[in-house]
Model the fold of this input.
Amino acid sequence: MYDAKYHKPSSVADAVAALSGAEEGKVLSGGQTLIPTMKQHLAAPSDLVDVRGIDGMSGVTAADGTVTIGAATTHADVASNADVLAHLPGLACLAGGIGDPAVRAMGTIGGSVANNDPAADYPAAVLGLGATVVTDKREIAADDFFQGMFTTALDEGEIITAIRFPVAKKAGYAKLPNPASRYAIAGVFVADTGAGVRVAVTGAGEDGVHRNAALEAALGGDFSADAVEGVAANEDGMMADIHASAAYRAHVVNVLAKRAVQAS
Done:
């Protein structure tokens, strides 16, 4: 790896200052993407700003119909947290299926959402539940946050501090995992939010995570696996690679939507 200056700030303000003073600074949270990228000489940040030790950046709180998760909370902690299990079991299930135990022990929800890998699991939950991404500067609705693969609404130097999820009436997630990486070849998160049904698809689209209007319309009238029968995902815009064709992914999205509803 290239040389980099390491910072371990004690506050969000200190983290912001370290980033603004760096020639090319990067936030280090779980490091599950950044560190391998650096090892492959595909990234060479001048400074690494580690946010894991900042008070309030980890942990879960539940109040007033919302579950707020600190950005530096690990996947393992999300999966096992009592409040997440009680109020959003579909989210706990999703977190428990990310990677392997080593990845879940190190990777963080904020790092995953900020990276917005097109096959990551958390973006589907954030978009499917209509969550709010909280940063050091503002609050960003999920529908405005994700802007294409590896692209978000975050400004340069802006730091995610928490994700705020509304508690849904029902919510579930199902994915077809890559057998090696456990990333989603396709994944579907469904949620009956009380204000309407939301369906988010990850792993399958050329532009990354996205909502599926046809599935939302079908489930809006009847939130059941039967309602999804015959609702075909559009092959246009689906990703094709060595793991699956666009047509296969379109078919799998329908199958996974049924499973997600059944799991909710």
User: Anything to note?
Assistant: The two ends are 43 Å apart (CA to CA). The CA atoms of residues 163 and 184 lie 21 Å apart. The chain has three domains: 5-50, 60-166, 170-263.
